Structure formats: C-alpha cells, structure tokens
Amino acid sequence: MSKPKTERVLKDIEAQAVARMIRVSPQKLNLVAAMIRGKKVSRALADLTFSRKRIAGDVKKTLESAIANAENNHELDVDSLVVAEAFVGKALVMKRFHARARGRASRVEKPFSNLTIVVREVESV
C-alpha cells in the first residue's frame, strides 16, 4: 500500500527545474536571475551565454533543464516558452576562519544558494 500521488503544484502549461547547492551567494545569483525573468527562453539563453557573471553558466544549465522538462515531460512548444519565474533561496552557509594579525581570527562565510526556474507556454499573438 503506497501513499497517494501528490497533486501537481504547477499549471498544465508550466514546467520547472531546480538547482540546489550552487556555490554563490543568493544576492549575486539573484542579479543573474533578474536578468532573465519574464523573457522568452531564446532571448534568456542568449543573455546568459554572453553574460560576464561566473554563475551565468549554472543558471543557463538550469534553464535548459526547465526547457527540456517542458518539451519531454509536458509536451509544451519550446518556441512559445517564457521564463515565468526565476527565484533564489538560501541553502547552507559554510563557516571558515581566516588567520589575522596578532593571533586573532576572523570569520569567513561561504554561502550556497538554490535556484528555481519556471517556464510557461504563452500563446503567440
């Protein structure tokens, strides 16, 4: 006896991809996520390809995964997809110590982030 299948959170015209434990601060990742929010996926991929931010490659990989999920799992048309949501959440923070002068130490925090990208199929006008 298994538990009942949970209902799908997203609508039928949406697909998502989640990247967890990305080694960058949420603030820096949100700058890149804001760059693609609301754009067509072809334009968003082009922006991420030519972005100078280090983390843009990981965001592009997650967006490509969301596009593949929409195409293969939900039979959505790739040409009419839009980045509906791109949001960032906190993950864990590694605490390290950095040696300072006169036998002291200062704290170094190395944050991790989670990224969720939701793509939605829109009817072309």
TrEMBL record:
Part of the 50S ribosomal subunit. SUPFAM superfamilies: Ribosomal protein L22. Keywords: Ribonucleoprotein, Ribosomal protein, RNA-binding, rRNA-binding. Signal peptide: none annotated. NCBIfam families: rplV_bact. GO terms for biological process: translation. This is Large ribosomal subunit protein uL22. Belongs to the universal ribosomal protein uL22 family. PANTHER family: CHLOROPLAST 50S RIBOSOMAL PROTEIN L22-RELATED, LARGE RIBOSOMAL SUBUNIT PROTEIN UL22M. GO terms for cellular component: cytosolic large ribosomal subunit. Pfam families: Ribosomal_L22 (PF00237). It comes from the Bacteria. It comes from Siculibacillus lacustris. InterPro entries: Ribosomal_uL22, Ribosomal_uL22_bac/chlpt-type, Ribosomal_uL22_bac/org-type, Ribosomal_uL22_CS, Ribosomal_uL22_sf.
